[in-house]
């Protein structure tokens, strides 16, 4: 599914481009002003997150190595690249103001690294990372459409590919455990325009996401803490991930119609 996603996005974009002329013809027939914008965005997102199961494993590792000069660091921050395909506008002054979005966002913790005193000789660094690839389809409304700023609200259904990553010594980070999570996001959408004809804008998207299914860090716990893994409550390594943050994107708008 992940490998085919770019193909599906390009297909959808092609369909949208082909249909804009007929859509705009319909918009022009409505009374009052109309607007139609198709935008491709790319940028960066950062969020504060509940990573309690992942942090439980890290805390357990540090507890088992009390007195070590350096310890692994937990995290409550996710960040990474984000991209989107947006279609929004209205049908006349009294028409419905709509917003549709396809969205991808990588949200990962910083790599946590520390020497493991239980490993003797050579490179004894341990590294961990939590990573989430988030795919979503959202819809909403655009209460404000204007020359300089467009503001909307929406909600999306999300599918997230979550990975618990680990490395020891010289090896690269590898995935110990991964899984699909299903969730939803509520968000606002702000497009800062540079006039009616400019083929680009800045997109700002504050959001709150909640995963209905639970992430599981038990395999990471088994590898990091082999002597205490069997003593731990398995539920402590499982949790519903939520995160709240903001995305900032540069948006290219090859299709942009304004009619007054």
Structure description:
With 260 residues, the chain is an alpha+beta fold. The chain has one domain (5-259): Porin (Beta Barrel), CATH 2.40.160.20. It is 17% helix and 54% strand. The protein has helices at 5-28, 52-63, 218-224; strands spanning 34-49, 77-90, 98-108, 112-115, 125-145, 149-168, 174-193, 200-211, 215-216, 238-239, 242-259. The strands form two sheets. An eight-stranded antiparallel barrel has the order 1-2-3-5-6-7-8-11. It has a two-stranded antiparallel sheet with strand order 9-10. Helix 2 runs parallel beside helix 3 (218-224). The longest helix is centred in the N-terminal third of the chain and has 24 residues, at 5-28. The protein is elongated, with a radius of gyration of 23 Å. The protein starts with a helix and ends with a strand. Mean pLDDT is 86; it is low at 5-10 and 12-31.
Sum up the structure in keywords.
260 residues; alpha+beta; eight-stranded antiparallel beta barrel; two-stranded antiparallel sheet
Strand portion: over 45%
Q: Could you state the order of secondary-structure elements as H and E? A: HEHEEEEEEEEHEE
CATH topology: Porin
* C-alpha-based Rg, rounded: 23 Å
Please report the total strand number as a whole number: 11
Regions with little confidence, pLDDT below 50 for 5+ residues: 5-10, 12-31
- Roughly what percent helix? 10-25%
Work out the oligomeric state of the chains in this entry: single chain
Q: Main beta sheet: strand number and arrangement?
A: 8 strands, antiparallel, barrel
Widest sheet, order of strands = 1-2-3-5-6-7-8-11
The total tally of domains equals 1
Q: Report how far apart the termini are.
A: 42 Å
Q: Structural class of the secondary structure composition? A: alpha+beta
Q: Roughly what is the average pLDDT, rounded to an integer?
A: 86
What's the architecture, going by CATH?
A: Beta Barrel
* Helix count from the secondary structure assignment: 3
Overall shape: elongated
Q: What is the CATH C level class, in words?
A: Mainly Beta
